[in-house]
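debug: dumping io for the single-chain case to check the tokenizer round-trip. Nothing else runs in this session.
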Amino acid sequence: MMQYPQISIPPRSEHLWRYTPWKRIHPTKVVEMPDSDPIRISSGVDSNMDDSDEIARSFIHAISKTCKKIILKDETLELDLRCSGHICSGELNIESSGNSTLIIRISGDAGWTGVRILGTVKGSLSMATINDLSSDSHFLRCEDWIVDRDSELEFANLSAGGFLNKSDIRVDLKGKGAQMRAGIASNGYSFKHDDHHVEIKHCVGNTESSLVMHATCNDSSHSVGTGLLTICEGADGSDAGQVFRNLLLSEKSRAEAIPELEVLADDVKAAHGAASAPIDVDQIHYLASRGLSYEEAAALIVEGFLMDAFREIKSEEIVDAMRTRLLVHLECLVNG
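debug: decoded output
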């Protein structure tokens, strides 16, 4: 029996739903179970996934007609998720071992898209996720990752598409020696609303995590970055940090950056920071004096600022994929 109809609508007082309430991200009325077209997934075998007691995950599970399992072992895979129709959804179960690389591109003109991912990492996994949906799409994304003993997960996320985006990403460092590095870049324009929530849990000691999120906001766009970093009792020797930075390119744009720490162990390193600032007019003037238009100068500054979110990512292949897609996206915006 599906759990979604029995789950209470979360209040806006909850950290996760403060800026993008469930009623706003749901594609129809919250009491309805709409029909959904399946996401077209370019690889994988048919699989299934357990339900969840968390409302967003349970909803995607309830309406999805497709679930694919991706097994990676010492390989590189580029995975296309094509989304079309009024409502589109799907689930992915990813198992990675050895030294693997995964690039996921989510594209299409679906009015509403829901993606749920469960992932386990044994070894080393470098992955990129690119939101390349149409500019009027609504997008709900839920991810749960488990990083095993002496294993490493690094992921880069570029949010270039969509009109209303909500991402809920959770990573559990389950084994000693587990590491996670994450870089998130969000480019806001027009009336785009981009909400990223990231929870990282150090379940045992001698684990490391790093999260960097950079967001640029132009026009009347709104960026939200919230993070919950938990170091559990007994997880001594953990080293964790998260930083949120926002660049405001217009007076009407808005940005929220809310990192949180919950440290229940004694011998740890834990740090967090957040900052928002307007674009530097001196930089604009300098670039304009070299013959660039305001739009070209701003795009160049945005490129450098967003790419800096990936400074902890070691995979050159992942960084190159992020840079290539970001440049195409910014060129399209400049040339309108």
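debug: round-trip ok. The chain has one domain: 4-278.
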